[in-house]
Amino acid sequence: MTRIDLTVVIPAYDEEDRLAPTLAAVRSYLATLRAPTGAPATWELIVVDDGSTDATADIAEAAAEADPRVRLLRTPANRGKGHAVRTGVLASRGARVLVTDADLATPVEELDLLGRRLDEGAAAAVGSRALPGSRIAVRQHALRELMGKLGARLIRAAAVPGIRDTQCGFKLFDGDKVRTAFARSRLDGWSFDAEILRFFHQEGWKIAEVPVRWAHQPGSKVRPRAYLGALADLARIRWGSVAPVRLAIPALFLLVAAVLYAGLWASPGGRYLADSGSDQTQWEWFFAVAADNVAHLRNPLFTGLQNAPDGVNLMANTSMLGLSVPLAPVTLALGAHVTWALVLTGGLAATACAWYWLLAKRFVRSRWAAALGGGFCAFAPPMISHGNAHPNFAVLFMIPVIVDRLLRLCEGRRTRRDGVLLGLFLTYQIFLGEEALLLAVTGLALYALAHAVADPDLARAVAPRLLRGLGVAALVAVPLAAVPLAWQFLGPQSYGSVLHGQVGNHPMALLEFATRSLAGDPDVAASLSLNRTEENAFFGWPLVVLTVAIAVRLRAEPRVRALAFTAAAAALLSLGQNIPLPGTDRTLPGPWRLVAELPVFESVIESRAAMICVAPIGILLALACDRLAARRLRSERERSHRLLGWAALAVALLPVLPTPYRTVEREPVPDFVADGTWRDHVRPGRTLVPVPLPSPSDTAALHWQVRAGLGFAFPGGYFNGPWGPDRIGVYGAVPRPTSDLLQGVHDTGRIPDIGPQQRREFRTDLRYWRADSLVLDPRQHAAQLRETVTRLTGREPRRLGGLWVWDVAGG
After folding, report:
1. pLDDT in tens, 25-50
2. All domains of the chain, ordered by start, with CATH?
3. Which residue, among 279, 318, 269, 271, has the nearest Cα to 697 in the 3D structure?
4. What pTM was computed for the model?
5. Pick from 440, 448, 365: which is nearest to 407 by CA?
6. Is the pLDDT of residue 229 over 80?
7. CA-CA-CA-CA torsion for 347, 353, 356, 360, nearest 10 degrees?
């Protein structure tokens, strides 16, 4: 096939009124073109008649007879503009191919502007009506123009980022590349432009957007229903162009999460995560109460179902309203136990996908390198530990999204828009987990400080943009979060801080393996952690060694030095206020002392600072993997180095691979609650009092309440609330004389003396709790508890539905 300089493709359908002058104008202009050598340019003009019903084909045929450089291609029926352009492009011979509409809304003379951009290295130059330099002589109808702008935004968001006008019918392409693109295209309708530009974008071929002259021409073939078809085409472009690896990696993350929680999914209502302590019951209660508040249009920030009559400030507890409220329909339809399993499984997978997306977009070229880093960020030992019982620390899919928006602010392209979105993202994360956000901000501050030291020139350049964007974000987030945060810190049952004591990591915890890691030893992990839900370090010594090696090997990059500093500083912070010296009784002052007394930080468990290390380590692993995957091997020695690198990754990561969570059979709900017998013993607005009262260590009543459809309230419970005049945060209700007395019998098995004072305090507490009935589940020291309550009430209980029941309504 003879090669020529330029092909012009004009799709035409029922264009008898416009085609002749268009062909004359194009031929006249093409006659003036020159090749780079100075000789007249060689060209061809292809008209594709898309099944016209008028004289369009006759006009084109007459032009072809007059000039052999004009060609007519015909389709037997109208197949759509995309099909017509594809037919013409695939038949083209030009080193460059211009596609233009038959109405010449953009004059053919604008070709010179597009050609310059290809001379500069672009693979495609698209005429644009949306750039500051665009010149619009005649505008479309306002509604059509609005629909076009909305469509352009959708296309830019879903298919072709960075191009503001993909639908202008005047585009110049590199011939070989555009023929390759159209050979792979499938759309026959008006959305073909987006499909082709999406292909160029995915191949990494540069697309230049060029402002041009444009004037609306009457007689448009685009009908209103075409916009609906374009939406469907856009979905096909978005998902049809997804490489298999891009689908396989999220599917792999979901599979891993499902395997980890397989025991829970085997019977969501009948199985319990063995290492979750009381937390699974608490979280299911949170989900159930949020759904009930939504269903009855009640305040989602408060409930009186626990800690009656004072209630619980849900905003001051980690109730994850950002998920519990949107998932209310799931909870109402399938139950809180299904929501619990769904949040854990989907949350871990979504967190892995979010980090994978960020790494692929910002840090590495290899999709599998991004998958490795993203998978580590979601399934690292600290994340798996919190996956037992703390979804607010395991479900962190918003953190990578926030990081990406911060990086966009540093680029300074659209500060206002990016700042607004950052403000919305931060607000939403507040409703997912404030402590996780605090740790993320701490890590980002450490990284920013280190990067500024490593590359001060860059820091000075991006600081003004970043600060402006943060200001915009604050203007958005503060008004949105003001009322919920005011309720959290100043509302009913609010508190100042939760005092956990000094619970920093032992230095050896950074080098050992977690309980749920493949190489983990539960006894060793237990000796170095608060409990199995707080194994906040446990990266294992091979991974620590590899991370140091990667940082040293890639230290020339400022971002690597900043990542290494962030991980090291966070690990040091996690050791707490007093760092024990292994093998001795001595301690050293820890850097956590610098923040221990600061607002909000005073409530943080220090060992959780080690969770900040997860993201820097994951990114460093991805960078190392990407370097190994991209390296060209030129010698046997280089092949050996690559093999050694992969082996080091395997040795470091295999021991910390997570193992499935262990589940146990759940304690059955007594028939008194399950079959609704309780309704005959608790009046509306009154309470049911379990013996002993529910507490953080005894949450059976929370499960009963959920099973009863939240039909009754009870005193006590498992939540964070205020205690004392300083409103210090404590776990559970403020003790009362009767609750202390009953808890003592439960713990010791000894029946105390019951005299007039105890009975007066008992009656006072019953009135305070608005109690209608007391119930005792046969358990530890049940006989002693039964005797104690019998003496307090002066009456024998009845055995109903598996429980001992004392009706105390009216005294």
Report:
1. 999 999 999 887 788 899 999 999 99
2. 6-240 (3.90.550.10), 507-656 (no CATH), 671-807 (no CATH)
3. 279
4. 0.81
5. 448
6. no
7. -150
